[in-house]
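When time allows, look over one protein, given below as sequence and C-alpha cells. The question is which stretches look regular and which look disordered:
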Amino acid sequence: MMKNVYPVFFTVTDTIILVEVPDLEILTEGKDMADAIEMARDAIELRCVSLEDDGTDIPRPSDIHSLDVNTGTFAEEGVTIVSLVDIDSGEYRRKIDTKTVRKNVTIPSWLNYEAEHAGINVSRVLQEALMNVLDVKRTF
C-alpha cells in the first residue's frame, strides 16, 4: 500500500475535461476540473490496488518536467495542462474493500466464558486491536 503523486494530463474541451494518466495508461473524464481530478484519483488508486493484488510492480511516477502535453492522447481535443494528483492506495482499499474474512482464533476457554458473560463481541475487539497495532483507521 502506498501514497504517491502521479502527473496527469487534463485537456479542457467545450463540454468536459479529458483525463490521461500516462504512467498507468488510464483515460477518463470529468464534467469540470474538480470532477476530473476526483476521477483521476479514483482511477489511479483503483489501478494501483489492482496491480498490488496481482503482485505486479506499480510504475513509478514520471518526472512532471519530462512530460510533453503535446504528445498526450487528447492533445488535439483542446488545451492540455499537466498537474499532479495525490493518491493513497491504502486509504482507497479501506474505503472499497468492506467484505469480511473469516479467521479462526484460539483463546483460552475461561477467557471466552468471561467475554460471553460480559457481552463482548470478540470479533469487534480483535478488529479494534488490529487497527490499533497497525495504526490504521476505519474510513467508512
Observations:
- The chain is about 40% helix and 20% strand.
